[in-house]
Write a structure and sequence with these properties.
single chain
Length: 203
């Protein structure tokens, strides 16, 4: 996923931090974990998480087998160590470990195997939706991210990603390519939240 046609890692600018983005560009598991962490915290904080976790584990990458086999209490401690890795470090540590255990059981520990041979966008969405911690919205956003920034484009991928797959949209992390687009995505999210609140009041 994270390799371009010339074999080099992808260049992404999601975390807005060079080392964190470099890891996201070369590590399928890091990208998947970043997406898992992307809730109730700023997007760039979520996607910096994989690098912070890797460093706390004494590595420059994440390994699903290592995480899956890690002592749960010790793994949680990696999340709760200050600065905390997430707003809800305990529950997110559990989810990341569950995700990696699932990858080991179903995909031999290879995150990229989730999408490598998916024949259609619908099939890929189904696979992503089955991952621990991934609901439909998160699965669609990650599918859009794969298609827009990593050239993982099975037939019908835009349709399967729903509105997040639309070309030129600024709805999610899939559309972040730098500071300007991050600001546009953040503005869209704020508008959507305000609209939802207004709709709730008028109901």
């Amino acid at each position: 996923m994270t390799k371009s046609d010339n074999g080099k890692a992808r260049t992404v600018r999601i975390a807005q931090e060079p080392d964190a983005d470099e890891l996201l560009g070369r590590s399928p598991l890091a990208a998947l974990v970043g997406m898992l962490l992307d809730q109730q915290v700023p997007m760039e904080w979520a996607f910096t998480g994989p690098l912070t976790l890797a460093r706390r584990m004494g590595s420059d990458d994440l390994d699903a087998r290592t995480i899956a086999a890690h002592d749960p209490d010790a793994f949680t401690a990696l999340f709760t160590e200050k600065p905390a890795l997430h707003r809800y470090p305990g529950s997110m540590a559990k989810r990341v470990q569950q995700l990696c255990q699932y990858l080991v059981t179903e995909y031999d520990g290879r995150a990229e195997a989730v999408w490598a041979d998916a024949g259609t966008g619908a099939e890929l969405l189904k696979r992503l939706n089955a991952l621990p911690g991934f609901g439909t919205q998160k699965a669609q956003i990650f599918l859009a991210l794969l298609g827009k920034q990593f050239d993982v484009r099975p037939t019908g991928w835009r349709e399967a990603a729903g509105a997040y797959g639309e070309e030129g949209s600024h709805r999610s992390v899939a559309d972040i390519t730098g500071p300007d687009s991050l600001a546009e995505v953040r503005a869209y999210k704020q508008q959507a939240k305000a609209a939802a609140k207004a709709a709730g009041r008028s109901a």
